[in-house]
Amino acid sequence: MSFEEMWRALLPVGRDAATGGYHRFAWTPPELECRAWFADEARRRGMPLEHDRNGNMIAWWYPEDGTRDRAVLTGSHLDSVPGGGAFDGPLGIVSAFAAVDLLRERGAALRRPIGIAAFAEEEGARFGVACLGSRLLAGAIDPARARALTDGDGRTFAEVLHGAGLDPDAIGPDDDLLGRVGCYVELHVEQGRALAEPVGVASSIVPHGRWRFGFAGEGNHAGTTALADRRDPMIPFAGMVLAARDAAERNGTVATVGKVRVVPGGVNAIASSVTAWLDARGPADAAVRRTVDEVGAAAREAARPHRVTVEVAEESYTEIVDFNLALRDRLVRTLGGAPVLPTGAGHDAGVLSARLPTAMLFVRNPTGVSHAPAEHAETADCLAGVEALAAVLDDLARG
Ligand code: HGY
Ligand code: MN
Ligand code: MN
Ligand code: MN
């Protein structure tokens, strides 16, 4: 299967025909279909498929001599944000299979295994914590906390894992698997518009996190409740959204409120509670922390006159991730020079960088849009990404 054929096979899976956006949430039918596609592509290439204890999958290409350690891992994720683009995640996986095909056609002699990973729940769109599969693998989240995470229907991660045939009690750090891996290189669509060339190399991932804001008021009738008697949580929620933009501008960060849950959500009912999520990111930890603190203070200030309570909980936070300099520079050399750029997006590579030398390749995105249907990469640039990944894997797997 060529890159284009694989791409065409995946393209319709989980796509909303009306908007062009993708809805591939972990262990829901579209993502399960992507997982089945992954297993087929591995089988087609005679690549043994490993299901780790945390819901991640790895397709292996082993050297003739049976070496199993110091593997070069690549890959990305198959899940999406709600209404996401086609490239965020799948591009890294389809490119990895296509790169393996190129290396095999060219008779590459592996001295180290090459693994293609599909990490679970990278977007955190179902259970709320980004990079859940790689965080569990790396020991970056308490397994008990992970088991108790719930999706929008109240199903726990433990129940969903069990339903997928995995043992929820077995999740957690996997030093055996990590011990077999020497480095991880992830190819990803650029989520911005900095690249003037088809392929770039990542320098760092800026600090980023997500916080849950809970506003509790009093449900009541929209028509019969006097303004003075109301405890409407929507008012401080609105204050929080505006404060997020102001705090971001003040601190040179970015802050987003993209998800909110209103209970009961009736047109003619004053809400009893509002839950909203803040995504904040920026060039330095202190600036991100200041942004979140200022939004919290503003939310409490706005809540007070309405006798609404506010609770703020940190759901995940990743400090700045500086990719392994030696590996990054080796990629730049292998590519005969390539632009090096930071990213404002989080990735499994960022999580794994705490345990492994990791690096990332970016493929140019002319729209600069991501996490939306307009996300795009030209086929020529995608094929340049495959060539770049093949060259990098060849260099690293012969080392
Ligand atoms: O949210 C992110 O930055 C990543 O795309 N999961
Ligand atoms: Mn993403
Ligand atoms: Mn991604
Ligand atoms: Mn009524």
How is this fold's topology laid out?
Elements: H1 3-10, H2 29-44, E1 49-51, E2 57-61, E3 71-77, H3 90-105, E4 114-119, H4 132-138, H5 143-148, H6 157-163, H7 175-179, E5 181-189, E6 199-205, E7 208-216, E8 220-221, H8 234-251, E9 254-263, E10 269-270, E11 273-281, H9 285-303, E12 309-318, E13 321-322, H10 325-334, E14 340-343, H11 348-352, E15 358-363, H12 379-397
Parallel strand pairs: 3-4, 3-5, 5-15, 6-14
Antiparallel strand pairs: 1-2, 2-4, 6-13, 6-15, 7-11, 7-12, 8-10, 9-11
The structure holds (2S)-amino(hydroxy)ethanoic acid and manganese (II) ion (3 copies).
Output the CATH homologous superfamily of the largest domain. Zn peptidases
User: Beta fraction of the residues?
Assistant: 15-25%
Name of the CATH architecture of the largest domain: 3-Layer(aba) Sandwich
Q: Report the mean per-residue pLDDT as an integer.
A: 97
**What ligand molecules are bound, each kind once?**
(2S)-amino(hydroxy)ethanoic acid, manganese (II) ion
Quaternary state reads single chain
Terminal-residue CA separation: 28 Å
List segments where confidence is low: pLDDT < 50 over at least 5 consecutive residues. none
Largest sheet: 9 strands, mixed
Whole-number total of structural domains: 2
Number of strands: 15
Tally of alpha and pi helices: 12
Structural class: alpha/beta
Helix content range: 25-40%
Order of helices and strands: HHEEEHEHHHHEEEEHEEEHEEHEHEH
Pfam family, one: Peptidase_M20
Family: Belongs to the peptidase M20 family.
Keywords: Hydrolase, Metal-binding, Zinc
Protein name: Allantoate amidohydrolase
